Amino acid sequence: MNLPSAVKLVSVYPDRVDVLLGKLQQKKLKVNLQKKGEPAIGYAISNEFVFPGEIEVIGPLNMLKEASFINTVPIDIGGITIDQNRTFPWRIGIDQKVIVKRGDKNVSVPVTCNEEVQVWLQIVEQQDTRFFEKIKIKVMRPAEYPYEIKPQDEYANIRVKGPKLVLDKLNTEDVVLYIDVTSLKPPGPYKQPIKCDLPKNVELVDKLPEVRLDIREKMRSLEVK
To answer: CA-CA distance, 78 to 205, in Å (whole number)?
Structure first.
């Protein structure tokens, strides 16, 4: 070893290494996409596509025959949102090694690959559900409606689904439950379906029940002379 005169070699560890020699061969391996980081809060990767799905590499014959895939270089998906959907495909390089099993150890084997692959990711908004209890049921009727309405139930529970970012900001004032009695006349009782107005991209999970209600003429006040 070429060491400075003032430096003395005391020991070397390990004192020996295993060297594997073998002929080189070409082999097609499946491409495995490596990712690092996480999408932005409220977003997820729903699908990914790599083209070509297999590429040709050159490496030691005795090791390469045991390899079934090769990784891409890691792509950074940290903070990614649906805005990145329009930027695909990305051109990604290939890692210049394969991992093979040797006993209970994973061995990294250098290989040569001059190809690149194209990558498409589909980023979507994460979906979630929320449950709201005791939402007031409004009664929709014309201004001069001449009848009194008495619903048996004045409140209902509701479960909705939609983008997590939207649901996290949703409150009871954003959920409108109502029944429409415009066409109803005595005598009752009636069963009316509950209708619902929700913000954009928010949907009901379960069908809303019907409300039983009574309807009668309004009591006229007596004129006192």
So the answer is: 32
